[in-house]
Inverse folding.
């Protein structure tokens, strides 16, 4: 089993100061279907390093932790799905004339052989996955 590092870029028609929120636990609620983070403790700032939240689907539960924030340039999250995968997600934003160029990097380690196979499939489709974010965000901003 090998660690997978995947990176792709999308554009958002907002400056980084406004686009940053779209890539936070609460901000993703606005454009990600079914995204419903749960905060185990009162969390006024969901981008503060050390902040924890949970997401779940019928198949798995993931624990997220903010590891780094440099508003409005970048934010990094650790994410652990027990017995499946663990790693980080980093979002880097750069100003452009049209808004922001956003680079999303997943650095994931599978925790089982079955998870490695699933991660290979995810990695193969990763550029399309991130492109779908651009479409979902554009729809939300209309």
């Amino acid at each position: 089993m090998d660690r997978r590092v995947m990176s792709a870029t999308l554009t958002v028609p907002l400056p980084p100061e406004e686009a940053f929120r779209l890539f936070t636990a609460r901000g993703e609620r606005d454009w990600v279907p079914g995204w419903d983070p749960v905060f185990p403790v009162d969390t006024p700032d969901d981008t503060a390093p050390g902040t924890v939240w949970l997401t779940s689907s019928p198949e798995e539960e993931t624990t997220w932790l903010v590891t780094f924030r440099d508003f409005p340039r970048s934010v990094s999250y650790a994410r652990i799905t027990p017995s499946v995968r663990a790693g980080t997600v980093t979002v880097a934003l750069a100003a452009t004339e049209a808004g922001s160029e956003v680079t999303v990097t997943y650095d994931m380690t599978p925790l089982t052989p079955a998870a490695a196979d699933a991660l290979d499939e995810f990695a193969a489709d990763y550029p399309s996955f991130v492109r779908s974010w651009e479409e979902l965000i554009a729809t939300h901003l209309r």
About this structure: The CA atoms of residues 46 and 81 lie 20 Å apart.
